[in-house]
Amino acid sequence: MRKVLLPTLIIVAASLLVLRIFYLQVIDDSFKLKSDNNAIKIKYDYPERGYIYDRNGKLLVSNQASYDIMVIPREVKNLDTLEFCQLLNINKEEFLKKIEKAKVYSPRLPSVFLSQLNKIEFAAFQEKIRKFQGFYFQKRSLRDYEVNFGANVFGFITQVNENLIAKNPYYNSGDLIGRQGVEESYEEILRGIKGVKYIQKDKYNREIGSFKEGKYDTVAVQGKDINLTIDAELQKYGEELMINKRGGIVAIEPKTGEILSLVTAPSYDPAILVGRQRSKNYTMLYKDSIAKPLYDRGLLAEYPPGSPFKLMTGLVALQEGVINEQTSVACHHGFSYARGRFMRCHCHGGMLQLHRGIYESCNAFFGTAYMKTINKYVQPSYAVDVWSKHVKSFGLGQFMGYDLPTGRRGNIPTSKTYKRIYPNGGWRSTAIVSNAIGQGEVLMTPIQLANMMATIANQGYYYTPHIIKKIKGQRIDPKFTTKHVTTINKKHFKPIIDGLFDVYNFGTAYFLKAEGIDICGKTGTAENFAKINGKRTQLEDHSIFVAFAPKNNPKIAIAVMVENGGFGATIAGPIATLMIEKYLRKKITRTDLETRILNKSLQGQYAKLGGLSEAVKLEMKRQDSIAGKKTLVSKVNKDTIRSNKK
């Protein structure tokens, strides 16, 4: 038996190998497509990207036809370079540079020579393309923006780079891919599937028909349409209100976690990143290190949250049982929390309880509540971790899992934080009490602030914020319909909400009321320092405001952050009120606030940081257009942008 076993195994293995070789060489031709590049030409049929709509079905992004000139360097022969360059309006140096780049990629494979020709350029070149051997057209579709706002939401499409081509076999040289915004997050859904045609060539390199009668050809599948959670009118209005300002606005529907508005300022018209001028315009935006128009402040900007964080301090203190609604704290226009340590306060002073502490934003009350929370436990390190766990249950201090490709986690300190700061130990609640009022080591992004307010509006739960509402023929990710419950008992939210409601009735936002809408809100400021001429300089505080409305059955939660805006009620507060009224009523009754905010410019403050960049000047022109200021400059700019698109 043993004598027969080894020969048998050899015979079986050899037989299987012969059969496999026979199958690959005689029966299966698919490998011939990859190996026989001289005899077979591959043509791709690129589908249209899926359309993008807002939550109400308004079309935001569609497509327009575009054409790339492709080149196969080895096939370029007898070319009249002068005529070719004149026709495409390029010089000989540029021509040689592009040819050399194509050769480096591959002498025998096609690559993009000149991208994104419009219809007029295409028609002119098409008439003479027969004279230019080795060149051909590749039809593609580019984005066509129906609106001139929301650039940070949409993102843009650009050519793939060589690193991505090496990693992902789907993409070839010249292919387009989504970058930033929903174009990146939902690239595989929006791009569709490109079709492939295999063309047989004869020994003279002439096309003679489909390889194997089209047996291996595939048909292009158009990308799927998507509906965003964004309300287009609210998004547009938010960008209008942020004219000549820097900052972010995030609005969320509390009951679903749907993002209603995601504003960053300054921004740009998405149309300038389409067409032949895309690269030049992107470089201008990218190099603007002052205004940072490509930097989404709603998702990336980390700030000390200031007074809005007092709501978290109060909720944790209630949950830990160290205060109740009747707890009274004396405020002497500040809080003396240690020998020689005094935290100033702008409230009216006297004996305060939780309710008044919220609507007057008393530092003494919440400083005391925080210290009681930490001092409840023997070990401050353990106490901080208990406090941190409660706060993080609101989605703070971590990446929130939303469906946009960028973001920051913010910072909610733990015992590890203070072990690094105080390696020798010995710290107590007095060393970290500034956390109570949203200073210290606490950092939050505007979207985290908005989610915090949505969670309070829901009295203890939230859904992961997301920007996708519907995908044609497909369900959205179930994580966006999964409820997250905080560690705070539901009963503790009512006194906090009552205090927030009276911020508009008796407190720091009493002059911001919109008649007939019960708004719950909280003002805040954050200290702002910058290096100017190598010196640390304190600038005007950042203006912060958070709110939700109506008080009962809330439909919108919002966070507004305006850099160098001063007190929370000065600029951020009015913006929040106007955004809430716009969403709930579809019109504005507080026209006094609207006029003041639209006319308010902080460019003087920003000029201290280095003047106005070209990107900001372009943005100011766009904002003029958005606001309906029909100046010659804005008209010329708009015409230029539309021309570049073509």
Automatic annotation (TrEMBL):
Membrane topology: Single-pass membrane protein
UniProt keywords, alphabetically: Carboxypeptidase, Cell inner membrane, Cell membrane, Cell shape, Cell wall biogenesis/degradation, Hydrolase, Membrane, Peptidoglycan synthesis, Protease, Transmembrane, Transmembrane helix
Pfam families: PBP_dimer, Transpeptidase
InterPro entries referenced in this protein's UniProt entry, alphabetically: Beta-lactam/transpept (IPR050515), Beta-lactam/transpept-like (IPR012338), PBP_dimer (IPR005311), PBP_dimer_sf (IPR036138), PCN-bd_Tpept (IPR001460), Penicillin-binding_protein_2 (IPR017790)
Compartments where found: Cell membrane; Membrane
Domain named Penicillin-binding protein dimerisation: residues: 46-209
EC number(s) from the headed UniProt entry: 3.4.16.4
Domain spans labelled Penicillin-binding protein transpeptidase: 247-577
A GO term for molecular function: serine-type D-Ala-D-Ala carboxypeptidase activity
Protein name per Swiss-Prot or TrEMBL: Penicillin-binding protein 2
